[in-house]
Amino acid sequence: MSRKGKRYDTEPKLNYKKVFAVIIAIVVLVMFIFIIKNILSNNTDKARITSDSYFAVYADNKWGVINSLGNEVISPSYEEMIIVPNSKKDVFLCTYDIDETTGEYKSKALNSKNEEIFTNYSKVEALENFDKNNVVWYEDNVLRVESNQKYGLIDLSGKELLPCEYDYISVIPNVKNSILVQKDGKYGLVNTEGVKVLDTIYSSISNLGEDYKNGYITSNEEGKFGVVDYTGKQLLENKYDKVEQIYSTEMFAVTEAGTQKLVNTAGETLLETGFESIAQILQYSTKGIVFVTGNKYGVMNTAGETLIPNTYDDLKEVKDNVFIAKQNDKYGIIDGTNAVKVDFTYNSINYNKQADIFMAEDASYNTSVLDSDFQVKLTGILSETNEEKGYMKLRIDDEYKYYNFRFEEKSAKDIYPTNTLYLSKKDGKYGFVNTDGEVVVDYIYDDATEQNQCGYAGIKKDGAWGCIDQEGKVVIEPTYNLDNNYVIDFVGKWHLGQDVNMNYYCEK
Known about the structure:
Blueprint: H1 16-49, E1 54-59, E2 62-67, E3 72-78, E4 92-96, E5 106-110, E6 116-117, E7 123-130, E8 136-147, E9 150-154, E10 160-166, E11 168-171, E12 179-183, E13 186-190, E14 196-202, E15 204-207, E16 216-219, E17 225-228, E18 234-240, E19 242-243, E20 251-256, E21 259-264, E22 269-271, E23 277-281, E24 288-293, E25 296-301, E26 306-312, E27 314-319, E28 322-327, E29 330-335, E30 340-346, E31 348-352, E32 357-361, E33 367-370, E34 376-386, E35 391-396, E36 399-404, E37 409-410, H2 412-415, E38 422-426, E39 429-433, E40 439-445, E41 447-448, E42 457-461, E43 464-468, E44 474-480, E45 490-491, E46 494-496, E47 504-506
Parallel strand pairs: 1-47
Antiparallel strand pairs: 1-2, 2-3, 4-5, 5-6, 7-8, 8-9, 9-10, 11-12, 12-13, 13-14, 15-16, 16-17, 17-18, 19-20, 20-21, 21-22, 23-24, 24-25, 25-26, 27-28, 28-29, 29-30, 31-32, 32-33, 33-34, 34-35, 35-36, 36-37, 38-39, 39-40, 41-42, 42-43, 43-44, 45-46, 46-47
């Protein structure tokens, strides 16, 4: 019996259908990978520039909340402004049913689903504060709550930080991380984590300096004042008629028996004659005070020797041996020997300690930026100083320019590396280019802003402002008159309100 089998003695034939199918499969796979990569890339880009943030909005005389896409989260329906204590958290605080006669009101917290949260409390409120320029801010991870007419603290997740056992809870103005608690007519102090700093035994507690780490001035039931540091340690016992808000950990300006004097932590008098009042305690190498006599300022040491004569209308030590001074309504800079380092020609001078630079503004609102050697390095209209990212933004020759604190010019890409579009100017008009420098938005606008963290940029034409998105598409044509707005900023169709202190957005 013979068997027939496969023959291998001839050239094998190519199966073209299978080969073609394999090629198609590979092409499809490559295209699929490419598409997925683009999708992921686009999603990453969008995630980089459209953070999950929330903002209060005002429309038709009502208040609501939008997200960073400009979409309504809480429809404008509340009579009172909705507070967003932390833009990254979906916790929104609403006040309603206000009785103007009695001052009574209700408050509640909502999340981004418009659901009421923290419902076991009768009131949920933000801890509102103000800085020295009266700009409103909130402690961003702590809320005051009320239950059974007693107050406590929770964080933004609802975790209890302090039980509701206090008669009231408030803040020390201008100072972060300093929360006053009141019980039985006495005050104590806790930090924003609810940790006790001072027992509720004081008649008053106030800040000593500009930061909670500077310590606190306390008074007892006899009306006598003393000083504690931010850990609660007693620095100066409560025996004085007054303690000035002039910070020092070694010396204090106090009033005793009607006389102001300089004392140390042991209560020993260092200086009490030669001045009418103490304006500043020197913190650097020269130990002494800025004193005032006849409304004129000077400097003396603790031995009572005058180092700088009192010939100035204002005087403030800002760094070692350097003073910003005012004379004849103009500001300049002097050193500890009274030598003029910067002429008295400016309307104001401020010192940035972190950058070690001076900002001197003239009568035309131009700012000269001086280095530590008092040399003018830049001049323009100062638009922004960002200490966190370490840059300055100035308008120079009708263009915005960026510089780091070493006065090196930086591009917008250096400052905003995650942006998809960058402001560009050509022939006196503004447009936008992408990261490769390709024109995405033509040069047709009279003014414009850089893309913000939500991906939007303002555009101005014929005196009106509008907005584009991260792809350069017009969200709203230039229709808003924002001549009275100090800052131009958009989130979708919404623009930042005139009162930047309130940080809200509106349509009109």
